[in-house]
Amino acid sequence: MTIVTPSSASTSPVPVDETLAAWVAEIAELTTPDRIVWCTGSTAEFDTLTREMVAQGTLTRLNAEFRPYSFLARSDPSDVARVEQRTFICSEREEDAGPTNNWAAPDEMRATLGGLFAGSMRGRTLYVVPFAMGPLGSPFTRIGVELTDSPYVVASMRIMTRMGSDVLARITPTTEWVRAVHSVGAPLAPGEQDVAWPSNPVKYISHFPETREIWSFGSAYGGNALLAKKSMALRIASVMARDEGWLAEHMLILKATNPKGRSMHIAAAFPSACGKTNFAMLAPTIPGWTIETIGDDIAWLRQGEDGRLRAINPEAGFFGVAPGTGPSTNRNAVDMLWGNSIFTNVALTDDGDAWWEGLTPTPPAHLTDWQGNDWTPASGTPAAHPNSRFTVAAAQCPSISDDWQNPDGVVIDAIIFGGRRTSNVPLVVEARDWDHSVFIGATISSEQTAAAEGTVGSLRRDPFAMLPFCGYNMADYWAHWLSFGRALRGRGRVPRVFQVNWFRKGEDGRFLWPGFGENVRVLEWIMDRVDGEVGAVETPIGYLPLRDGIDTSDLDLADGTMDELFALDDEAWLREADGIESYFAEFGDRVPAELHAQLEVLRSMLRAGAEGS
Ligand code: GTP
Ligand code: SPV
Ligand code: MN
Question: Which CATH code for domain 248-316+403-569?
């Protein structure tokens, strides 16, 4: 850790690019921190930071007997999730942000932020965090620098990204890098006692896509504050990708190998807290299958030299949902969390370990809940916050693939879109062709989760699982996907596309499908379809498995469950079609003609079906 005063910002451990040094000095002048630290990314630095946070009360060290080198952070109760209403895309023109983003004029936003950031780091340290998204040296990789006054952010960024001196050394006058500024917005007066989780009720998560800048104020929660992740690797990167002909997506990447030894790589987009981490680490229930993990949240995809679709996981760690993670749902995640982990807003056991709903079949008799209160099973509230999270290095995952850092990425054979739908959407359906795939992605709706502020359970459109993360007009993003497919078709192979829904419920309100490790049964069908080994039934919404097309042997399903999972209600789908028409209308004439055409195909097939029956 190199400590320098604001006036000598260039005295860093490695030579610093002059533009970077000047920018750090400029931000320091605005935010007036007491000191500046250039982060090296070393283990010693991480150790110092976490010790300081323990002393300060931000972190509690977990009992090393159960969870070595691990910590619990309790956030302010008002700073537990992404704040979509406070997230802005400040493009020059409002129409370039589109109707699904909050827009603010760049000049106005700069003026607002200038006021908020003035003196905002007083009494604190400004950390300079150089980071790479993607393996160093890969053609996919992009660099950024986050300036933050939160040591929690620094420690998390060290786990989640490749961070420190190696990245700093790569920043030269010709390097393109993303500028990201973050402040918790809680300056300290001289001698003022700090709180455990400083934050500010006023929050702004602002993006300037044209200048590739990010300014985040008031929150230290992951998605609002680890700016490499959603802000850079999705919102800013989606704009870079549009301009440069690639894709930045909210997708996991996995490698599946079937008992015949056939392997495929699959990328899947599910909305926040809809199962990406779990699917990426799936422990198959059918013998002979192997699933390996490449990424659990973000994928960057491009056409390789060979014309094939290739993808990397730009991250280096997992910031995963804790509740629901247990030995029977996600064994790999439980095992990877043996140590070296930061837990945020989970409960604390009396012997100093972490606990959350779903970790064990029954809760301990007594806990300290995520807000630091006594808790017993009779309390009637969750002990861990529903959006409590773990932060852990990807390398600790037992199912991590040898290829997870392959600089050339892995070849993607199939893409899956998913969502959380109580009704209507079948367990799995295959798209007819690329245009239909984009139509499916564009019209996905999903029930909202605790990952963002809002009403949990309310159904909303979440196109490509990118609603909160697309840095430009969503209709232009659909057009970009269409043209990306044309480019693939021109030179290589277009991956097959599927939609899944693990969350359909029966009349009793229970999930019809067992999910988790049993999802391998759906993967099996998908792989067999890609290889042309099984037939399908054509329906208005795409190709469905033949009767008994999904292997359900040894599954304890109630009679008629598979019929319910695939039941197609034409009337309900005609209403969906009306909903899609109104949705498209929100984007005016920017909606690609191909998508209107797909809507008409859907309608006419539904009407023909309704007449035929
Ligand atoms: P983000 O990190 O927010 O992007 O979420 P994610 O998509 O990685 O979601 P994650 O895998 O963490 O799952 C979120 C919640 O859904 C957890 O509580 C899981 O236990 C639950 N879940 C995941 N897969 C399944 C499944 O197949 N069936 C059911 N019923 N629940 C699931
Ligand atoms: C999500 O909300 O989709 C996440 C968690 O992956 S966060 O990084 O906080 O956005
Ligand atoms: Mn996510």
Answer: 3.90.228.20
Structure tokens at 523: 């993967």
Task: Quote the mean pLDDT of the chain.
Answer: 96
26 pLDDT more than 70: yes
Pick the atom of ligand 1 nearest to 323's CA: 18
Going from the Cα of 451 to the center of ligand 2, the distance in angstroms, rounded, reads 6
Q: Map residue 557 onto helix, strand or coil.
A: coil
CA–CA separation, 575 vs 581, rounded Å?
10
Q: What is the ipTM of this complex?
A: 0.99
Strands 87-89 and 204-208, bridge-based pairing? parallel
- Alpha carbons 103 and 431: distance in angstroms, whole number: 33
Q: Which of 277, 332, 420 to mutate to test the pocket of ligand 1 (most atoms within 8 A of CB)?
A: 277
pLDDT tens digit string along 290-329? Answer: 999 999 999 999 999 999 999 999 999 999 999 999 999 9
For the chain, domain boundaries: 18-58+81-245, 248-316+403-569, 318-396
Question: Please, what's the b/e burial string for 260-294 (b: 16 or more CB within 10 A of its CB; e: otherwise)?
Answer: eeeebbbbbbbbbbbbbbbbbbbbbebeebbbbbb
* pLDDT at 611 (0 to 100): 66
Fold of 18-58+81-245: Phosphoenolpyruvate Carboxykinase; domain 1 (3.40.449)
